[in-house]
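Case study: Carboxypeptidase regulatory-like domain-containing protein.
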Amino acid sequence: MPSLLARRRSLVATVLAALIACLMLVVQTPEAPAAPAASAAAETGKVRGNIFGKTGGSPMRLKMLYFKGDWTYLGARNVFGSTYSISLPAGNYHLQFVDKRPAYDVKKFAPSDVFVKVQAGRTVVKDVRMKRGAAITGTVRAGGRPAAKARVVAANTSEQSFETVANDQGQFALGGLPAGSYSVFTYDRRKVWVGKSLYVPKLAAGGFANVKISLPRKAGELRVDVYAGGTALKGTAYVTAVSRRTGQFWTAKLSKGTVGFRGLFPGRYRIVVPDVGRWFGRTGSVKNGYVVSGRGAFGSFRLTQRGGAFTGTVVREDGTTPMQGAAVRLYDASGALVSEVETPSTGRFLVGGRLRAQSGMTVVVFSKYDSTYEPVTISDLDIMLNQDKPLGTISLQH
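Here is what the predicted structure looks like once written out:
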């Protein structure tokens, strides 16, 4: 049977793998798309159902999140009462119901998911049962004193995390947790004290765990210079530092090629840098970034892969006069439009910019404002990472 320490390490590794995957996909969460329009009603079906749950007589206040069958997020809406209804295009969906009561309410329901298959012009009935979640309660002390307003985060192996804030006496409660094992990470509001994560195994539905969290060590700081090739990385992004010793993670904003983290546990770190501009993000160890209690550490990190692009200049039929307002479209091997740019007064263009290695691409150039010019098509192009491939001068003819 695996030891308690082995199970704890496995949980932290799983949680961090999910975190890293999410951060590498996006820098900022895009605005959620609106619910399907009424004009598409003929192609949609309905999902209706009852919501069961014990609230002591008070009406339920929930949020319903809906996802595609592959868990791609689509949107959310509030649900008040004991029934729900939603119209969706034909397809497979996950509906997730989340209790809107505060995180500190130990009577809060755990999230409940249902899977539905929607057919156009039909109504699917799918009932939902909300069950009281597990809860973690306790106190946080930092440097031997109550840690007022400390942030407490509980993360499980199902890629879910829940958080709350301790009161002025360092007391906290975190309800509505699904059954399972949790790693509990705690952050001192003043970023002065730090401690190891706490492992809470096998919480049953509706069960309680009361814990004492201590942040006994002076925290350190880490400043990382991030380079793209041989120069400082331009742009902004949110970067995550992960302690190699405890698995705890901190997020900070990168600006002007530098990111700083405060309140860190001593030891070595790896960081997660998302895609920034044309540069592809990656996860790796910080060079020379060993954090010591009560001190600052300074390290560096380098992005090495830049997206490919095609460059050139569009001119008029005389072969020398730059053409402004020419459209340059780039298609992949399947014929899907990948990128489009419009030439400025210089006639110069860079199209693509974030291309991975591929072949069979096509560039089409045409005038957007004068249809008497014949379009130019350049086919069977290939591109590599870190490559700006010149297409030379492209002359549009009448």
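For the exam, be able to explain this: Residues 4-25 form the longest helix (22 residues).
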